[in-house]
C-alpha cells in the first residue's frame, strides 16, 4: 500500500511540545506569517481551537516558501498542530490568505497543464491505483453503508447515512427513472448509485471505473442486482458496446477529467445517450476560471485532479446538450466531510494496524482542509441536468 512504509520525519514528544510552547521571541519568518494570519484572526501558539501550535522552528519559513504544499507537508511531518484545522482553513480562505502566500507548486502545475494533457488515457489509471485502491477497509469504515464517496444532501438529513440516501434519491428523481431503463454510470465507484437505483427504481446499470478495488468490491456488494462493472476509461466507451442508454449519470468523477478533455467527455456522453435521454453530472467546482488545483491535494490525494468552473463546463457542452437545471449545494460538502472525518477518527484504533502515523496525519489534513474550503464557499458542488435536445415542455426540478 502506497503510504504504509513512509516514516514520520518529525514526532514531537509531550516534553518537547511543552518546551516549544513557552513564550519566546518570534523569528522573522514567524512574525511575517503571523502578520498574514492576523487578518483571519488566527494566532501562532494561541489557545483557541483554530490557532496553530508550532513544534518546529522552520515551520513558518516552510509555509511561506511553499504555500499550500508547505502547509500540508509540514503538518504531515508533525511540525505543527491545530485542534480545528477545518475552521483554521475556513478563516484563512475567507481572508484570502491562499492568494497572498507564494505558491510555486501551483505555478509549476499550470505550466505542466498548459504543455501536457495530465489526464490522458494512459495517466487516467494513476488516481485509481494511488487513491481508490488504498484499501476497502479504509473507505468502508469512513463512508456510509452504500459506500457513497461524494457529497451527501443534508436538507432534511441528520446523519451521514440519511444524507447519502437523500442524495441518491434526489438523483433518481431528477433523472425521472422508470423500471426497465438502462443507465450508464461514468465513474461508478463502488456502485452506490447503481445499487440504489436498481433496488428502488428497477433499472439496469453499467458502471465504469478505473479502480480494480472498486470493481471487485462493488461486484460483491451488488449481489444479484442487474448491475455490471466495467474496468475501463470513459474514452473507451462507444454506443457499439451496449447500444444507447436511457440515462447517464456521473457522480464525483468529472474532477479527474481535465480541461483538455472536457469536450471529448461530453462528446462520449452525447454519443452514448438516446436523443430523449437525460444526463446528470454531479461535480465539485471552482468559483472562477483558472488552475483549479491545490498542489498538496494533487500530490498526495488526487493525482492529476483539477476542478472545473461553471463557464468551462458550459463551454464544453453547449453544442451537445441543453442545460436544463443547475443546482448548487456545496455547503453540504462541509457536513459530509466532517462526518467522514468523525468516522475516520473513530475507526483509527483499528485502521492504525494497516496504515502509518504519517498516513493518519495526511488523511486527517485532507478531510479537514476540504471541509474548510467548502465552509468558506471557496469550492462548490453542482448537479447539472443536461438533455441532448431539451425536454419537451420544459424540465422541472423535483420537489426536495
Q: Explain this structure to me?
A:
By secondary structure, the protein is an alpha/beta fold. It is 45% helix and 14% strand. It has 17 helices and 9 strands. The protein has helices spanning 14-20, 28-37, 59-76, 85-94, 97-100, 104-115, 126-132, 136-142, 160-174, 192-201, 212-222, 239-242, 262-272, 295-300, 310-317, 331-351, 357-375, and strands at residues 53-54, 80-81, 182-186, 204-209, 227-231, 245-251, 273-286, 322-328, 379-387. The model is unreliable at 1-21 (pLDDT under 50).
- Succession of helices and strands: HHEHEHHHHHHEHEHEHEHEHHEHHE
Oligomer designation:
single chain
The CATH class assignment of the largest domain is Alpha Beta
| Strand element count | 9
**What about the largest sheet?**
7 strands, mixed
Q: Any idea what the CATH architecture of the largest domain is?
A: 3-Layer(aba) Sandwich
Whole-number mean pLDDT: 88
Helix content: 40-55%
Q: From the alpha-carbon coordinates, what is the Rg to the nearest angstrom? A: 22 Å
The residue ranges in which pLDDT falls below 50 over 5 or more consecutive positions are 1-21
Spatially, the strands of the biggest sheet line up as 5-4-3-6-7-9-8
Sheet-strand content, in percent, reads 5-15%
Shape: globular
Question: Helical segment tally?
Answer: 17
CATH H level of the largest domain: which superfamily? Vaccinia Virus protein VP39
Count of discrete domains: 2
Which fold name corresponds to the CATH topology of the largest domain? Rossmann fold
User: How many angstroms separate the termini?
Assistant: 41 Å
Q: Which structural class should the secondary elements be placed in?
A: alpha/beta
